[in-house]
Design a protein that fits this description.
The complex is a heterodimer of chains A (about 140) and B (about 220).
Chain A lengths: L4 E6 L2 E6 L10 E3 H8 L2 E3 L2 E4 L2 E3 L3 H7 E2 L2 E3 H7 L4 E3 L5 E4 L3 H9 L7 E3 L5 E3 L7 E7 L3
Parallel strand pairs in A: 1-10
Antiparallel strand pairs in A: 1-2, 3-8, 4-5, 5-6, 7-8, 9-10, 11-12
Chain B lengths: L2 H7 L4 E7 L5 H11 L4 E4 L4 H6 L7 E4 L5 E6 L9 H21 L9 H6 L6 H19 L2 H14 L4 H10 L7 H13 L11 H7 L1
Classes of the chains: A alpha+beta (about 140), B mainly alpha (about 220).
Chain lengths: ~140, ~220
Amino acid sequence: MGTDALEVLSAGRRLTTTRTPGYENDELWISAADLEQATGWTLKPEGLCRDEVCAAVAPVDRERLVDGEVVCASGLWKILGRAVLHDESRSVWMLGESASDRSRNLESLEAPDFTLPDVTGKLHSLSDFRGKKVFLATWASW
Amino acid sequence: MWQKLYEELCDQNFMIITVAMDSRGTKSAGGPIRRSKATYTSLIDEDHLVADLYNMVNVPQAVWIDEAGRIVRPAEVPGAALTFNLAKLRKLRAIYLDAIRDWARNGEKSEHVFSPGEARAHLPEFTDDIALAHANFHLGRHLWEHGDRVEAMRFLRTATELSPESWNFFRQMKNLQNILGSGGPEFIGRVRRASKAGKEYYALPDMPAMTQLAK
C-alpha cells in the first residue's frame, strides 16, 4: 500500500481512498463525501446524521473539525463518544459505533439491517425478506 | 442443521437466515454450507457484524424477526447446552424447534412472541466496552487479513479483554492463531468465571417449558 493510501472501516462498510494533501496525518482528514461513503453518516447543518438520527456538533467543534469540504472524521467521532482506532502507520482507521446508538437501535425493536455475501459472493440483505417471518441464527466453523 | 425445519415451514411465510461468524470467510464456512445443501439463506460474516448489531456473544444465537421487520425475540441460545446429557440436549432442542413451529404457523398469536416491553426487557445491555470491543475486533480482523498479524493480534486480544463475555471474539481469535478455542484450561477457566458472574456459556431461552427442564 502506498503511503498516501487510506482505508476507512466502519461497521458493515469499508472505503479505500487517499490522504487529503495538506493535513496532518495524526488525525483522519477526509472529504465529507468519503465520510458518508465510509460510515453512512452525513454532515449537515444540524449535525452528523444517519437516517432520521442526528448527533449535534457544537459550533466550536465544527470550526475546529470542518474545513470546507474536508472534515476531521476522527475528531468528530471522538466528540460523539465513538471509538476511533488506527494501525501504527495510520493508514487503516476504524470508526466505531457508540453503545448508545447501538442500544437505541435495539430498543426500537426494528431489526438492524445488514448486507452479507452467500457462499458464491452474492449479497443478501435482511430487508430483502421483509413480509416474511425470519429466523436469524448464527453459527461458526471454529 | 436447520434444513428439515425449513422444508417443514417454508410454506408458512417463513425464512431461515443463517450467518456464519467466520473471519476466514468461505475458506472455513464454505465447506459446511455447501454440504448442508440448504435451500434457506446461508450468509458469511467475516467481521462478526451481526453479533455487533444484535449484541450477540456466542454461537449459536438466534433472533426472531416478524413480517414487519420487528424483533419479537432478541438474541438467545436456540436450544444448545454445554452438557454431556444427550437426552436433556435432545429435549431442549425439541422444545425450541416446537416453539419456532408455533411461531411460523401462528405468527403474533404465538405464545412465544414477546410483547414490545418483554422484548426490550430481554435485550442484553450494550455497554461502551462492548462497542469498543467490536471496533477493536473489526480492525484486528482486517489487519490479520491485509496487514501486520502481530499488530492485528493486539487489537483482537483487546477485544477479548473488553468483552470477556464474548465467546465469539475469544474463539475466533484462537481459530486465527490455529489454536482450538474451546476446551483447554484457558477456555474452561473463562466458562467458570462467566458462570460465577451469572453469565452462562449457553443460557436457556426464556420459554415456559425450558424453565421446567432446568429444574
